[in-house]
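Hey team,

Sharing the Cytidylate kinase family protein run so nobody has to redo it. Sequence (64 residues) first:
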Amino acid sequence: MNRSLHLPPIIKKVNHERSVHCRHFTQTDWGNIKNYDLCIKSNDYGAPETAQIIADLFRKKMHL
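Structure output:
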């Protein structure tokens, strides 16, 4: 099922603009999971906990 068919027009427009921007500046496909180092469903954790997860992983990666 293609979920993008059920999105409001403004969201489709913004997603298209993001895709074009990403392809132009990075030569990659926006939304392709292979192009991301970290994906978090922040609505599962809330902003403060999501920020803490990111900060903790950053410190770990940078050996801080």
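The chain has a mean pLDDT of 91.

Ping me if you want the raw files.
A.
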